[in-house]
Design goal:
Elongation Factor Tu (Ef-tu), domain 3; 446 residues; FAD/NAD-bd_sf; six-stranded mixed beta sheet; FAD/NAD(P)-binding domain; globular; six-stranded antiparallel beta sheet; FAD; alpha+beta; 13 helices
Length: 446
């Protein structure tokens, strides 16, 4: 066996695909255009750089579909999950990491792997031969995007992602803010105090909403339309949907008690999550924004405790492209018109770090098996992996296809369980138990 697997894009999906294929005994070349060709959102040339958030979201593998996906990836010796666990930060029930150490470690491990080569070059066309995985993510280069559009004969779908700002910890006024995870969630004191909270009373909240609505916003380029993925809405877009939207979303005050004023219930609370292991940086949770830089500093310094905040990074917005996977990909994630090419990650229409890495994991294994002349069993639909790949390769309605996070709505029902909120806990546990059994069985056959 001398055939090499080429992977275009060294983000979450590309990194995981490379690791899985290399571990199966296939030589891999990762083509990553950074740092020679930069993007709006990336700041380094590291593989698996986290540009939006430092969180992989819930780590609960019994009651949460994302946590279940974590479990499945760990079971498959996933590079992303293994490295995330090594650089974990306190985040209540979530899995958050020091983003710099995480990306540096992923890069080092892949560059050190004897079967992996990393090249700093841009690929701008779809090759006719060889085995390829395109995992170029939400910031696919214009030239490659054009090549994909020409090949597929379809308009590339697009939406917009926004990035949240990061604050220096020593610029936060702790006489007003306090450390606490919502509902004191977590098994250790460090986890129970993983979030930094800034309270607002009603007048402060109303003034904040007024400022958000009036702030200068980034303009879109000519011909662009502002379609957003609902899981990553800018806060000013949320506030435009109703003045109470933020108070029932990222600024909800429930499950928190202010030790500075324990008898006063906050009207709204802004939460910040630690962004690095040193605890010197905090990102403002759920505060993705398209405000211009000057407006951001003015508006965010209205938050109690952040009046003198210094920002390590301000927020921003960028275009995110993806293909209409249900019409273009087969069940093995191959492009129907060019079966030597697979797609993986966000470009396939999955949303989130975890989902992207998961599709990279499957694409890497499927491509490696094809190169090795092995036939893998079909990915079980009742696993989290299977639910996602089924959704993007045919389960979704092509006419209304939009980016999707993993969720239990993608899972087939378990017979005999009642629906509704009251039966949710038993239903979710049944989903995760069934998924773990199916996934474990699939791995044993691979």
């Amino acid at each position: 066996m001398t055939q090499v697997l080429h992977i275009v894009g060294g983000g979450m999906a590309g990194s995981e695909a490379a690791w899985q294929a290399a571990e199966m005994g296939v030589d891999v070349v990762i083509h990553e255009m950074r740092p020679n060709v930069g993007t709006f959102a990336h700041q380094t040339g590291n593989l698996a750089e986290m540009v939006c958030s430092n969180s992989f979201r819930s780590d609960d593998d019994e009651q949460n579909a994302v946590g279940l996906l974590h479990w499945e990836m760990r079971s498959a010796n996933g590079l992303i999950m293994t490295t995330a666990d090594a650089h974990r930060l306190p985040a209540g029930g979530a899995l958050a990491v020091d983003r710099d150490l995480f990306a540096e470690d992923v890069t080092a491990r892949l560059r050190a792997h004897p079967r992996v080569t990393v090249t700093d070059e841009e690929v701008s066309s779809l090759p006719d031969d060889g085995q390829w995985i395109f995992a170029t993510g939400p910031l696919t280069s214009p030239a490659l995007g054009q090549a994909i559009q020409v090949e597929t004969g379809a308009e590339a779908l697009a939406f917009f992602d926004a990035i949240a700002p990061i604050v220096y910890a020593d610029s936060i006024d702790m006489s007003q803010a306090w450390m606490q995870s919502r509902y004191d969630k977590g098994e250790t004191e460090e986890e129970r105090t993983a979030y930094l909270n800034c309270p607002m009373d009603r007048d402060q909240y109303e003034a904040f909403i007024d400022a958000l609505l009036a702030a200068d916003k980034a303009e879109f380029h000519e011909g662009e339309t502002a379609g957003y993925f609902d899981g990553c809405l800018p806060i000013e877009v949320m506030s435009e949907r109703g003045r109470e939207t933020l108070r029932h979303g990222p600024m909800k005050p429930v499950g928190l008690t202010n030790p500075h004023q324990p008898d006063v219930k906050a009207h709204a609370v802004v939460q910040l999550r630690r962004d690095n292991a040193l605890g010197t940086l905090f990102n403002i949770v759920g505060f993705q924004t398209k405000m211009k830089y000057g407006a951001q500093t003015e508006v965010f310094r209205m938050i109690p405790g952040l009046e003198n905040a210094s920002f390590a990074r301000l927020g921003g917005i960028h275009r995110n492209t993806f293909i209409n996977s249900p019409t273009l990909l087969d069940a093995q994630m191959r492009l129907k018109s060019k079966p030597n090419i697979r797609f993986a990650g966000q470009i396939t229409g999955v949303e989130g770090y975890v989902e992207s890495a998961a599709m990279g994991l499957l694409a890497g294994r499927l491509a490696a098996a094809e190169i090795l002349g092995r036939e893998l069993p079909e990915v079980p639909q009742d696993s989290a992996m299977g639910a996602l790949i089924h959704h993007i390769t045919g389960g979704a309605e092509a006419k209304t296809f939009q980016p999707m996070n993993v969720n239990f709505g993608l899972f087939r029902p378990v017979e005999g369980l009642k629906g509704g909120r009251r039966g949710r806990k038993d239903r979710y546990k049944a989903y995760t138990d069934r998924a773990k059994a199916e996934w474990t069985n699939w791995l044993a056959q691979c």
